[in-house]
Amino acid sequence: MTDVVPATVIVLPDPSLVLLIGVTGAGKSTFAARHFRATQVLSSDAFRALVADDAADQRATADAFDLLHRTVERRLARRRLTVIDATNVLPAARRPLLEAAARHGVPAVAIVLDLPLPVMAARNGSRAGRVVPSPVQSRQARALRHSLPHLAAEGFARVWVLGTPEDLDRATLRIDPTGTGR
Description:
With 182 residues, the chain is an alpha/beta fold. The protein has a single domain (4-176), classed as P-loop containing nucleotide triphosphate hydrolases (Rossmann fold), CATH 3.40.50. The protein is built from eight helices and eight strands. Helix 2 packs across helix 3 (61-77) and helix 3 (61-77) runs parallel beside helix 4. The longest helix has 17 residues, at 61-77.
């Protein structure tokens, strides 16, 4: 099914490729840690740290994503549930991941954390370590707003949207081993 629905119970096919999509400070990493095993989550920050010893080193982004995409390929070839923890707000960032899922015959699912910008700005400002500049966060929010109506057409089997901090807190995940996501 390719509809966009508000989320309370998120049913994920296993295997699947799950893209967490949201602006810096939306809570993607916290959500991933709460709902998935550490081995299932591929974090762009963690891959930056792997290649540059610094999760905030933006100069390492190309190398980090090269390694992340290679890992996606290996996990999907093994038919493992794989979660991408990155902003993923631009179609160009999502496209190679969707292509990898299609190559391996695995459905891609989007979980969008579409929180109000003031909430994300406050969270971003209170982060330990790297704080993303406000103009960057605003650009990410605009990109997300532009992308949201088109996500299903990009090839996601399902798009789940969490629009408030309460939605994040209430959301539960169910893994469907039949692979249908129902």
